[in-house]
Write a structure and sequence with these properties.
The chain is of the alpha+beta class. Helices cover 20% and strands 33% of the residues. Strands 1, 4, 13, 14, 15, 16, 17, 18 and 19 form a nine-stranded antiparallel sheet that branches. Strands 2, 3, 5, 7, 8, 9, 10 and 11 form an eight-stranded antiparallel sheet that branches. Strands 6-12 form a two-stranded antiparallel ribbon. Helix 4 (136-146) packs antiparallel against helix 5 and helix 5 crosses helix 6 (160-169).
Length: 350
């Protein structure tokens, strides 16, 4: 078992206290948005035992490239409205930007790699997100509740997808009937608190999902989403491909966003990931993800024999063996471990 030291990402939307508190370290005044436990070059994890060596040892030096990243995420304010590509879309987009000579670290680079970025987000406390577009009926009801008569008329005439595209184009939205809302919804209010942007009305066309601890969402390629607030464990394909549409200071490419986004997916988006109790202490998350995620509620011994090529264990509460809250470890295929303690652990395998 290799204990890991994650890569910290200090994005502007991050919480200043939640992740330092989880790691039992002193907050340094910066926003702590994410801690990455993976091998992606934009945030590679180190092996914790190497901190006293002359040069840190990356996890990738020992195990190669992982097909997933495990993240601890703490949002104090809404993230951008965004989506992610499929593998085929990522391969094409990456090749196009390479051919155009756009540096990998350029601010306007959209495709960081050639991989898809399916992701599961699991609430560690109360967690809120906008996830996928609502059906016509639900969108009209949400517009009616908010007194958004102009947006309701657009949905009635042309449907949710057309209304979403019109709102996100946004160039003539401010001050129009389309942007007038008598009673903003809670999700709209959260967006407007941090962004002076009339495109916040797009929240009335989407699912506003509130997760309780342990509940999860799965976002496949093309699903439009914006995390609003809370602390979560996020598992995703080992990719940093993000197409942003609004509510960010980072690069926005609406053409690429619209090429990837599913604007009329009102079937499963926003639905909780089904779970299955597979033992008295273990719950499995069941969905069409390219990785396996399980939650373990422990009071005693935790025994694991890794049957997948790669497994990462993350402790999110309590402590078990050398793993305290916020700590993670890598377990190789065929390796067996036995740890003692009272804790909540998540295991991610592929």
């Amino acid at each position: 078992m290799l204990r890991l030291r994650g890569a910290v990402q200090h994005y502007a939307w991050g919480d200043r206290f939640a992740l330092p508190e989880m790691l039992d370290i002193t907050a340094d005044g910066r926003p702590w948005a994410e801690i990455w436990y993976g091998t992606h070059p934009r945030g590679p994890a180190h092996i914790d035992d190497s901190v006293h060596l002359p040069a840190p040892t990356y996890l990738s030096d020992e195990v190669g490239d992982l097909p997933f990243i495990v993240k601890l995420l703490a949002a104090a304010q809404p993230l951008s409205l965004q989506t992610h590509p499929s593998t085929a879309q990522a391969v094409r987009g990456f090749a196009r930007e390479q051919a155009a000579g756009i540096p990998l670290d350029a601010a306007h680079r959209v495709y960081a790699d050639e991989r898809a970025k399916p992701e599961m987000v699991i609430a560690l406390d109360s967690f809120e997100a906008l996830c996928g577009f609502a059906s016509r009926e639900v969108a009209l009801q949400q517009c009616a509740d908010a007194g958004a008569t102009g947006l309701a008329a657009l949905v009635t005439q042309h449907g949710v997808a057309h209304a979403a595209r019109t709102v996100l184009m946004g160039s003539v939205l401010a001050g129009t009937e389309l942007a007038r809302v008598a009673t903003p919804s809670p999700a709209m209010t959260q967006l407007m608190e941090h962004h002076d942007d009339p495109r916040a009305v797009v929240a009335l066309l989407m699912h506003h999902v509130r997760l309780h601890p342990g509940e999860a969402l799965f976002l496949d390629s093309g699903t439009v989403h914006a995390y609003l607030h809370g602390v979560a464990l996020e598992v995703q394909g080992s990719s940093d491909n993000v197409m942003r549409a609004a509510f960010t200071d980072k690069h926005v490419d609406l053409d690429e966003f619209f090429a990837i986004a599913r604007l009329d997916d009102a079937t499963s988006a926003g639905a909780l990931v089904p779970t299955e109790r597979v033992s008295p202490t273990t719950t499995a998350y069941r969905c069409n993800a390219p990785f396996s995620v399980m939650r373990h509620e422990l009071n005693g011994t935790f025994a694991l024999t890794a049957t997948s090529q790669h497994t990462i264990v993350v402790c999110t509460s309590g402590s078990v063996g050398p793993l305290t809250r916020g700590a993670a470890a890598y377990v190789a295929a065929g390796e067996s471990i036995a740890l003692e303690g009272t804790a909540t652990l998540y295991t991610v395998s592929a």
